[in-house]
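Intended use. Records such as the Galactocerebrosidase entry shown here are meant for training and evaluating sequence-to-structure methods. They are not intended to support clinical decisions.
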Amino acid sequence: AAVLWGWLLLRCIWGPAPPGVGAAALSTATYVLDDAGGLGRQFDGIGAVSGGGATSRLLVNYQEPYRSQILDYLFKPNFGASLHILKVEIGGDGQSTDGTEPSHMHYENDENYFRGYEWWLMKEAKKRNPKIKLIGLPWTFPSWIGKGENWPYDYPDVTAYYIVSWVLGAKQYHDLDIDYIGIWNERAFNSKYIKLLRYTLDKHGLQQVRIIASDRLWEPISFVLLLDSELHGVVDVIGAHYPGTKTVPNALLTKKKLWSSEDYSTFNDEVGAGCWARILNQNYVNGNMTSTIAWNLVASYYEELPFGRCGLMTAQEPWSGHYKVEAPIWITAHTTQFTQPGWSYLQVDGHLEGGGSFVALTDGLGNLTIIIETMTHNHSQCIRPPLPPYSVTPQRATFYLKGSFYMVETLQVWHSRLGFESGNSSLFQQLHPVKVWKGSFSLDLNVDEVYTLTTLKTGQKCGCPEPPPPQPFPSNYKDDFNIRNPPFSEAANFADQTGVFEYFINASDPGDHVFTLRQVVVQRPITWASDADQTISLIGNFQWVNMTVTCDIYIEKQHDGGVFVAGRIDNGGIYVRRTKGVFFWVFADGTYRVTGDLAGEEILMKGLSGVRDNAWHTLTLNIQGTSASGLLNGYPLWENVTISKPSNGWAAIGTRSFEFAQFDNFHVE
């Protein structure tokens, strides 16, 4: 009778059952939440990755107040995603999915802890949440680490020194304490190197920095940890990628913390939100994982690059200020706003009888948070791995609170419904509190819903002003790179796809070219993807068809140096080697070429130009319809070259090889 009376109270709160679902048709089940027999694993937090690579590239050039609003949605506690963990790429000058991120040590005798944007991002995250945990992980390494070999483990002491210098630089130059360090993203690990990394960290007083291995699969790392007690002693967390909510017996046998250290990677619409809701719960329910980290934090890269819009939110238009707080942000909030690292999961089988899952967590001080998800199969498929079929039906769930939770009288309620049929979702709405009657309460659960029930009253959904409307990239864009103290090392909106292009002060030039943009990677890095053999940085609007690209260029490499300007660039990221477009090259030997590809194999025109190294020249590429022409220093050099494809694409600059070269007064129209 008490349960029935509690239910009648609830019916007033919740209203009638979902349309077409008679009360009799609901499957019913009971679940007990009790801490009397001890707690489950400690919760380590929910996070996201910036990098792997260049995923935050366009974020940095947003104007205020929009940039700060985006950062608030990601990091500010009790506001939006309220992330507990930020994982960043330790830039290594190589292509790591959507671009390259610069290393703090391009060359062996070079150290600079102000390159790129990850330092800035970590500081912005810490500013908003001083308790946020920071993780660093390399995807690529500068060439000198491998002494010419495409492998970082031949000289493990060199690699350890390089990584530890990044950790020390974070503290010395930015007052950032790195909490965790990884080995090599989704590539082989080396036991000797991991032990040496631990030794090197300790030698520099960095005992508090923990090691995650191996950011790939559960095996072979779990098996090796069981065999090698010394390695077992230095690895703190086993991090697996895209585990499909499952773990393996060996991982459990290690007794280590188990994390999904990269997951999600799914287009950030409602299905992406469903994927994220499901794995945030089921990574623990099915796989004992106590942290889940999304790739990626914010989709701040040109959308036509690989995995466009696979971020928790979208901010890919710094020129307009437009951004979009996507559904995954509010799915994240269901967990992050009502838990903290250091809380513990309750020991309970979190599978709902009608399909879906729940987790329950406590701070050990009487607070309780329950997160329920009922995502259907077709509305929650992640990009990987394939999702086996299962079914979810509307259901009534009754929870009995026991142990220290028996005295809980009311729970705050936050609710999301992903509206696939109707097209309108309701995200992270606060409902009336639910009354707990003699230690129990019941809920009617429909499909594709998320509920958070919690003793905490701190949840918040910001009612912020709308960002400006979207606008295409400016159709007339100039950059003269004349900036004495740039806030970032890279020029706004340029997205490096092989090589690294940095602001440069050309002290030897007394005239118009003191401030330039320079390509600085002169040896092929230890790669993660298939970097091109040429360097390239792209910019603009992928939909552009007709365009004129003009740039002053300066070849530094004698004899066989070369540079290009290009248009209609059709590819980048991990596919950069197969990039097509219209490329206008000039070489230090006084020749020029027009090619249809970055590799330079599809030659459309060639001849003499009179260009030489260590002198400034102006290249102009004009593409109209199916015809292209080129000017050198304002005079026609070639014309009427027929262009069949690509039909559209970005503008770009770059070099023939990994070589120094400079660019100035870039203009695309």
